[in-house]
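Quick illustration, no need to memorize.
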Amino acid sequence: MTKNSVKNFVVPFTVCLLLALALYPDTSLNPDTYSTEGLELNYNFSEDLAMVEIQDESKSNTFSPHLGKSFEGFKEAIAFKESQGDYFTVNTLGYLGKYQFGKETLKLLGIYTPNQFLYNPELQEKAFIANAQRNKWVLRKDIKRFEGRKIAGIKVTESGILAAAHLAGPGSVKKFLRSYGANNVADAYGSTVKAYMKKFSGYDTSIITPDKKAKVTL
């Protein structure tokens, strides 16, 4: 019914327009005749439509999990610092994977095929746990002695100690703590024991149990 009404209006209007153009060919259209200047225009929108908030599409699809100071947060923070979380990367010194393990450390954990390690995310996650367990056992007395104290201007925490041990080995962490910050070892890229101890302080690493002989098994 609506279509018929439109058709009945448009056809006569078109005919009249063509006749007018034929009869008055010199007539020109004056846009000023149809100007809305001076008129009070009232646009009505529903309240729901008017209150819609326009969102930035570039932000609407962003997923950013908040892991806080949990153990998962600890792991992912170290992974991001080491490799930006890339399981399959090898740095210029030959350190492998998400957590940048050296080949000698992998041997201690029972892993003798670096290529297998590099392309196996599950193996890398287990290696991180086993390495932390070994380091926690080596440093158990130092954790008990120094945790909560301030050394070289930073508060010593278990997670900071374990992170620094991941960077430079438990022996370097012992030297830092027992020299009260005077012996601050750096890796080849300039990251120091002190910097790691500060950056990764306060995470919950209670899930890690000290284990002198921790190995990786699949």
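Residues 71-199 form a domain with the Lysozyme fold (CATH 1.10.530.10).
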